[in-house]
Every structure is written in structure tokens, then in C-alpha cells.
Amino acid sequence: MNRVKPGDGHALQPVRWWQLFSRSVFHLPLSYGDAPPETWSVDIRHGGDPDGEVYARLYRDGINTARSKVPAVFPVPGGRIEVATSAYGLRRCHYVTYDGTQRQLFPDHASAEGRRAHLERTRPALSRTLGAASMVVLLLALVLGLPQIIEQLTSIPLLAESVGTLNSPVRLPEWVNVFLVVAAITASTERALRLRYSRILDGGILDGDA
């Protein structure tokens, strides 16, 4: 929470179609105690600001009240909003109450996450199929790609002297490896639209994510 800075009072802008994969907006309708109902919103521009940092911005009834570098923790009535990103989008945007109860914020209907959630509500069978396909693609990419990555790493002289060299049992044409990389990025992006994340499947170990 020490990273949280005051907002500048600007209004929350609507999500445009060209921002589908560069911006995430989530909302939290909140009633707490005797206070009137409020809507808290979080806006993340994944490409970052001109300074190169990615910020989460907090809005109260559409007015900016705070900002923080990600990962971010914003205090709000009754608890806090936690925001974390990955290389492919969001991996967490949850309201955590004082007693530890958690619930995910609702994606803006115009955002990519909102459109994915709409698909899940209106065509659940197709949604489950897409989710399963993403999991299969990532598992396949892990099984086929990891041995090749380890072989390349252990071919580095310093590592080779320490641990030896691993010869990968998997040998794939370059075009297949390129296809696997593209497919894995697509699958992880689809999972990020549902705020699904695994350090192993979605590359968090290689990226240094906690």
C-alpha cells in the first residue's frame, strides 16, 4: 500500500475497440455499512505510461482517486483491491475483505475480458472448449519445448561445466517450434482474459513472477 499515490481526479474513459488487448477495466459495485452504494473501478494500460511503468488506477464512481505501480493493493471500504499482471494481461483483480473473503471484480463489458465473460455466459459449451484447448496447447508446448530449452541452456559453457549438457529427446523443425510459441502465447492470452494463471503453464517461472 506504500506504493499507492493520490489520483488527479480525471474521469474514467470508456474502453475503445482498439484497446481490447492493451487495456483492462474492472468494476466493483460496493455497499459497506451505512455509506451509500459506490462503484470502484480499476484501469490498467498494459503498454505502460510514457515512463515505461505499468500502473493500476483506481476510480470511485468514475473519478480517479489513486494510482499504483503493479502489483497494486488499494484500500477501499471493507477491505482492499489487489491487482497483479502477467506478460499476457491480468492475473488478479480481486476484492479482499477484512475477514479474508475474496471475489473477482467484474470486467467492463467493452473490454476483451468483458467480451470473454459474455461468451462464457451465453455459450458456456464453447467457452469450456476454448478453455480446455488453451490448457492442452500449453501442456503440449511445455512437454515439447522445455527439453529443448534446457538443452540450449546447458550448452552454455559455464553451465555445461557445472551440470553437464542435456541432449533433448525432442527434435522439432524450426517452423513447428515457432508455431508452438505462437500457439502458447495465444493460449496464455485467452487464459489471462479469464484471469487464469499458472507459473508453470503461463511462463511465470521464466519471467520471474512470484
Can you describe this structure?
This protein has 210 residues and is α+β, with helices and mostly antiparallel strands. It is built from 5 helices and 10 strands. α1 crosses α2 and α2 packs across α4 (174-193). It starts with a strand and ends with a helix. The protein has helices spanning 112-122, 124-154, 157-163, 174-193, 204-207; strands spanning 5-6, 23-30, 38-45, 55-60, 63-69, 72-76, 79-86, 89-97, 102-104, 106-107. A hairpin with a 7-residue loop joins β2 and β3 (38-45). The protein is 35% helix and 28% strand. The strands form 2 sheets. It has a 6-stranded antiparallel beta sheet with strand order 1-5-4-3-2-10.
What can be said about this structure in brief?
This protein is an alpha+beta fold.
Topology:
Blueprint: E1 5-6, E2 23-30, E3 38-45, E4 55-60, E5 63-69, E6 72-76, E7 79-86, E8 89-97, E9 102-104, E10 106-107, H1 112-122, H2 124-154, H3 157-163, H4 174-193, H5 204-207
Antiparallel strand pairs: 1-5, 2-3, 2-10, 3-4, 4-5, 6-7, 7-8, 8-9
Defining key terms:
210 residues; alpha+beta; six-stranded antiparallel beta sheet; four-stranded antiparallel beta sheet; 5 helices; 10 strands
Question: What is the count of β-strands?
Answer: 10
Low-confidence stretches: none
Cα Rg:
20 Å
Class by alpha and beta content: alpha+beta
